[in-house]
Design brief:
- The protein is mainly alpha-helical and 171 residues long.
Length: 171
């Protein structure tokens, strides 16, 4: 847990450094390096917070990452991380909306196929296995669409196995 706390502290410090620079203090290349490093560390710290079930903190860190995302790829990755945070918190409706946004953003940004497949796995997992987070079952056609897209994109055998398992779980 100490590693997680240090990761959060470093990420927060770097985010503060980015926020304090109004564009006139640092060399633009140095500022971009600090922003990029802060983004990566915020995503990492948020992922670690989710893994230890500190979901409010995970959302906070991933929102901070989204706030400093400078590219379409970074934006898509931050949205996908937020979707997973909400999924793990069994907040089905906001998680589903975020996964939809992440799929669209990832496609537009040209995220690598395997990364897009993992977004499909998360959305499929939400629809097939975590349906208790919704007031009513969701449309099974959307699950079929997400799984099929994931199978088209996935090159990794473990990802393919997850997608096939989701397909089987859906019936």
């Amino acid at each position: 847990i100490l590693v997680d706390e240090v990761a959060e502290m470093v990420a927060t410090h770097e985010r503060t450094a980015v926020d304090l620079d109004d564009g006139g203090v640092w060399d633009p290349a140095e500022r971009e390096l600090i922003r990029w490093t802060a983004f990566r560390h915020l995503v990492y710290a948020g992922d670690r917070a989710r893994q230890r079930s500190a979901l409010d903190r995970a959302v906070e860190l991933h929102e901070a990452a989204r706030g400093i995302a400078a590219t379409a790829i970074e934006h898509a990755r931050a949205i996908a991380a937020l979707a997973e945070d909400h999924e793990f918190g069994l907040a089905g409706i906001p998680a589903l909306e975020l996964y939809r946004q992440a799929r669209t953003a990832a496609r537009r940004a040209g995220l690598p196929d395997d990364d897009r497949a993992r977004i499909c796995i998360g959305m499929g997992r939400l629809l097939a296995l975590r349906w208790g987070g919704f007031p009513a079952r969701q449309d099974p056609a959307e699950l079929d669409e997400v799984v099929e897209e994931g199978l088209r994109l996935a090159n990794d055998q473990e990802d393919r196995a997850w997608l096939l398992g989701l397909k089987a779980a859906a019936g």
